[in-house]
């Protein structure tokens, strides 16, 4: 693992505790391991060509080998790792274009959801978004990355649900798994900007300003792409 890149993620004991707090069943544990490895691949902690060893990874995360094996099977299906006979799972290359494509897809779906949400959302649902954004603001002020990530997720879940386009929202959630939340929630500047973006988005919803809501919602994904690519450039991901 790259020690410089690893500063953007929680350390091994913290991530182990986080996994154990949120997990009750083996399937959930496998999902959490996959999420951790996915984030480390996306942020360059696990570089292309790196072999992910079952026993080493299990020991680092404080879990058994079984959920690690299942997590790697999931990542193999996503094209993030490849199984090499007699050698194990190796991280596949991740280019700037790959990252741009992932965030482009998210932004495209986000625009569609925002357009529908602006037309359908009720005054009560807008008030709920305001409350959720206040929760995010408090989490940012407390500088708690886990709380920030949870509050940000809750805001967008409520926003997307207000569209009534549940299947499309599900697709966005599926793609959003590639977004390494902790590199954003550990950045104080990002948190402040996210809260302000949400305020502007809420104002646009109250005005029923579709164009503004669409661009404000998509902006968070285009901004996320720029920040992630800048981080990967900084650690020499493509050198």
Describe this structure in words.
By secondary structure, this protein is mainly alpha-helical. 74% of the residues lie in helices and 4% in strands. The protein is built from twelve helices and three strands, in the order H-H-H-E-H-H-E-E-H-H-H-H-H-H-H. Strands 1-3-2 form a three-stranded antiparallel β-sheet. Strand 2 and strand 3 form a beta hairpin. Helix 6 runs antiparallel to helix 12 and helix 11 packs antiparallel against helix 12. The longest helix has 25 residues. The radius of gyration is 18 Å and the shape is elongated. The N terminus is likely disordered. Keywords: DNA-binding, Transcription, Transcription regulation.
End-to-end Cα distance: 16 Å
Q: Low-confidence stretches at least 5 residues in length (pLDDT < 50)? A: 1-10
* Residues in helix, %: over 70%
Look at the structure and give the mean pLDDT.
90
What pattern of helices and strands is seen along the backbone? HHHEHHEEHHHHHHH
Q: Categorize the overall geometry.
A: elongated
Biggest β-sheet description = 3 strands, antiparallel
Q: How many whole angstroms does the radius of gyration measure? A: 18 Å
Q: Got a strand count?
A: 3
Annotation field: number of helices: 12
Class by alpha and beta content: mainly alpha
Give the strand order, joined by hyphens, for the main sheet. Answer: 1-3-2
Estimated share of beta-strand residues: under 5%
Pfam family, one: GntR
Organism: Mycolicibacterium frederiksbergense
InterPro entries: GntR_C (IPR011711), TF_FadR/GntR_C (IPR008920), Tscrpt_reg_HTH_GntR (IPR000524), WH-like_DNA-bd_sf (IPR036388), WH_DNA-bd_sf (IPR036390)
Protein name: DNA-binding GntR family transcriptional regulator
């Amino acid at each position: 693992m790259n020690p410089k890149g690893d500063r953007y993620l929680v350390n091994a004991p913290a991530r182990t505790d986080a996994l154990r707090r949120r997990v009750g069943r083996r399937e959930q544990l496998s999902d959490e391991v996959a999420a951790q490895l996915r984030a480390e691949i996306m942020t360059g902690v696990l570089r292309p060509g790196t072999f992910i060893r079952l026993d080493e990874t299990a020991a680092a995360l404080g879990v058994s080998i079984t959920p690690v094996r299942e997590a790697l099977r999931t990542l193999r299906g996503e094209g993030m790792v490849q199984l090499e006979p007699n050698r194990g799972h190796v991280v596949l290359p991740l280019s700037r274009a790959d990252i741009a494509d992932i965030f482009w897809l998210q932004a495209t779906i986000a625009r569609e959801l925002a357009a529908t949400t602006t037309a359908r959302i009720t005054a009560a649902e807008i008030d709920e978004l305001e409350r959720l954004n206040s929760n995010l603001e408090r989490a940012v002020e407390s500088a708690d990355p886990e709380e920030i990530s949870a509050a940000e997720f809750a805001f967008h879940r409520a926003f997307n649900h207000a569209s009534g386009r549940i299947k499309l929202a599900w697709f966005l959630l599926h793609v959003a798994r590639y977004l390494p939340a902790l590199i954003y929630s550990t950045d104080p500047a990002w948190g402040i900007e996210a809260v302000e973006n949400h305020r502007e988005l809420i104002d646009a919803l109250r005005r029923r300003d579709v164009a503004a809501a669409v661009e404000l919602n998509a902006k968070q994904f285009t901004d996320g792409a720029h920040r992630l690519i800048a981080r990967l450039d900084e650690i020499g991901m493509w050198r």
